[in-house]
Amino acid sequence: xxxxxxxxxxxxxxxxxxxxxxxxxxxxxxxxxxxxxxxxxxxxxxxxxxxxxxxxxxxxxxxxxxxxxxxxxxxxxxxxxxxxxxxxxxxxxxxxxxxxxxxxxxxxxxxxxxxxxxxxxxxxxxxxxxxxxxxxxxxxxxxxxxxxxxxxxxxxxxxxxxxxxxxxxxxxxxxxxxxxxxxxxxxxxxxxxxxxxxxxxxxxxxxxxxxxxxxxx
Length: 217
What we know:
Blueprint: H1 6-19, H2 44-54, E1 58-62, H3 65-79, E2 84-86, H4 89-97, E3 114-117, E4 121-123, E5 128-132, H5 141-144, E6 147-153, E7 157-158, H6 161-172, E8 180-183, E9 188-189, E10 197-198, E11 205-211
Parallel strand pairs: 1-11, 2-3, 3-6, 4-7, 6-11
Antiparallel strand pairs: 4-5, 5-8, 9-10
Helix pairs in contact: 3-4
C-alpha cells in the first residue's frame, strides 16, 4: 500500500528509525561548542552599544557615576517625565545627588511611568539586558512601566547568552532566580493586521545608562 499522505511518510520514517537504531558512538561529541567568538578588534562596550541601538534602544555612556545622575536629570527635563519609580537603594542615592524625585512605595507602583532598575548583566552580541526576579525591582518593574531605564556597569558586560548563564549560576549557585527576563529592545509586535505596535507587552522605550567602573575601587 502506498503512503497516502506526507504525514504517514514521516511517521513511517520515524518508526523505522526507532526500530533500526544507529550504532554510531556519540559519547565523545562536543554538545556545547562555541559557535560565536568575540571580535578581537571591537570592545564589548562598543559591540553592545551598536547592537542595542540597532534594536531601537537608547544607549547613554557615563564615564563616572556622577554622569548618570547629571545626564538622567537633563533627559527628564527634556522629555518632561513624571512618576519615576525606583526600588534600588543605590540608585535612589544617585538620584538624590541630582535632586531627582521618585516614588518607591508599593502603593505608588501603579502610577509608574518611568521605571529605573539595575540588571544582572549585559549581553554584547545580542544587545540584551538580563534582569532577574532576585533583584530588588522584582519581576514587575522592568516590564510594567511605559519607559524602562536600566543602570549597568561595564564590568557586567559578557559576550553571549552562554556567558550570561555561567555568570548567574556562579552568582546564585543553588538559589537560582525563579525568573529571568531578557530585554532586547523596546516591546513591539506586528501580530495585529501586520501593523508594528510598540509597547504591546512591555515598555515603549528602553534606555541603558552604562557606567564605566574600570577605575572605581
